[in-house]
Amino acid sequence: MIKVLIVDDDFMVAKVHAGFVKQTPGFGVVGVAHTGAQALDAVQRLKPDLVLLDIHLPDINGLDLLQRLRQASPELDVLVISAAREMDTVRRALRGGIVHYLMKPFSAQDLRERLEHYQQAYRPLASSGSTAEQEDVNRVFGLHRPQRPLPKGCSAETLQLVEQLLQDAGADLSATEAAERLGISRVSVRRYLEYLSEEGRAEVQLRYGEVGRPERRYSWRKAG
């Protein structure tokens, strides 16, 4: 469950936004704050993962609060929700490291889309190990490319076997070597290996012998 803190000076608006958040699977509201001081206290006490932050607060500018929240909790993510439309405000918020900027008024679906993007793109980076794949980074910046469908006649089950073989091999393999280990035809295995290469999940190197065409050698693409 992703813990959300809502920061908005308007009590009714904050209540509506809390209802929107609760409609999104995987998210829960752990608290509501109506001033900057309340927000700083709530972040320390409740340890939220994500803050929905309004810019206009009675005791502090939301952008200044953004910096103080970052100092208080460096791992905290912030999604700005505000009626502020000035380009300078948007730029300052982006430079402050927000995950999104949503302008009021908006619908429940508008917020849900931003929350789902956060859930799919940002949270895996927070929960993964010390390295990331390029595709993980692409999701954050909106460059995610959906996986292409498998070639005709190929199955997801066999693809998984080929992936596991490459990951466990510890060295590069030819299509012939992979076919022998899996007990399926070399032609079939090569189709899976080429697919993984085109998807950026496997690397291909050419090994040149004394005669004939170079041999294609496949290995799993490591993160980092």
UniProtKB/TrEMBL annotation:
SUPFAM superfamilies: CheY-like, Winged helix' DNA-binding domain. It is found in: Cytoplasm. The modification 4-aspartylphosphate is found at residue 54. GO terms for cellular component: cytoplasm. InterPro entries: 2C-system_Tx_regulators, CheY-like_superfamily, DpiA-like_HTH, Sig_transdc_resp-reg_cit/mal, Sig_transdc_resp-reg_receiver, WH_DNA-bd_sf. GO terms for molecular function: DNA binding; DNA-binding transcription factor activity; phosphorelay response regulator activity. Residues 3-119 form the Response regulatory domain. Transmembrane segments: none annotated. CDD domains: REC_citrate_TCS. Keywords: Activator, Cytoplasm, DNA-binding, Phosphoprotein, Transcription, Transcription regulation, Two-component regulatory system. Its main location: cytoplasm. SMART domains: REC. Gene3D superfamilies: 3.40.50.2300. This is Transcriptional regulatory protein. It comes from Arthrobacter crystallopoietes BAB-32. The lineage of its organism: Bacteria, Bacillati, Actinomycetota, Actinomycetes, Micrococcales.
